[in-house]
Amino acid sequence: MSVPLTDAAIDQLFLTARTYNAWLPKEVTDEQIHRIYELAKMGPTSANMSPMRLRFIKSKDAKERLKPYLSEGNSAKTMAAPVTAIVATDFEFYEHLPKLFPHADARSWFAGNAQAIQEHGVRNGTLQGAYLIMAARSLGLDCGPMTGFDFPGVDAEFFAGTQIKANFLVNIGYGDAGTNLFPRSPRFEFDEVARIL
What we know:
Elements: H1 7-15, H2 30-40, E1 52-57, H3 60-66, H4 72-80, E2 83-90, H5 97-100, H6 107-110, H7 114-138, E3 142-146, H8 151-158, E4 164-173, H9 190-193
Antiparallel strand pairs: 1-2, 2-4, 3-4
Helix pairs in contact: 2-7
């Protein structure tokens, strides 16, 4: 039976977690990267389609490949981050449904239906990217998600010859709270955006 998380865990995941723009010079290990994925992959997606694809940009060479496609405002912080995840969506996700959703012919729901492929791919790939952020936070890491980059350029550089398209980037590491950390922006109150019916 599930029980509520401790206040400290909730705080780490939601309340004090921030979008970081500067990073401490501390390594994110390959083991941590694998653990992030192992947690993120367990979040639900429609028909278990799991369309997220990832490139964890960690080495100096990989960073240099990414750098030309970053917007001016995102370049320095991304180059300084220990790891940058390219969160992407595979728009041929339906080809894997016989493995991932074997109790129904789910592939036939999407094959040849461009609108369904696009809608479900974007929705579920983005959802998985959110799981990735929460997984990293659960392991004591900080994140800086962003979309300021040349999408076609990143696709050509890292996903050439595939139907995989970049969705957003996430810098991952140990955030430097003393540098370039903006005050928390306002959020809506419950009654401004929600109704209990």
